[in-house]
Amino acid sequence: MPVNEVDLPECGVARFLLLFDGPWATLIVRELLHGPRRFGELREALPGISAHTLTNRLRLFESRGIVIRRAYAEVPPRVVYELTDLGRQLQPVLDAMCAWGEKAPVSAFVPQEPKAARS
After folding, report:
1. Where's the HTH hxlR-type domain (predicted)?
2. Number of domains in the chain
């Protein structure tokens, strides 16, 4: 991760990938686009994600202004995560990803044997 603005890549896609470099990051945002969620709700909605990975991603998003962590003074304690305005701006990005994923042929997602080069 860049430590200052000088280290940021100029390319917008490269900048995006600084935060969304794996599958879980985008899927966490997808879930939060449905509304505020508790940690356990996110874990349940994302089978296979470890508590460690979810915690780290939420902390990263919080430190970058994409997610707000709201802790309520209740017994038992309740913590809710929700997207900020900046985070909600990711809606059209995820919509475009979803549209592409739904329209792409199955062959785009299944390993194929390389076709022989024509001579």
Report:
1. 11-109
2. 1
54 located within any domain = yes
Burial class (CB in 10 A: 0-12, 13-18, 19+), 108: exposed
Q: Average pLDDT, stretch 20-40? A: 96
* pLDDT tens sequence across 53-110: 999 999 999 999 999 999 999 888 899 999 999 999 999 999 999 999 999 999 888 8
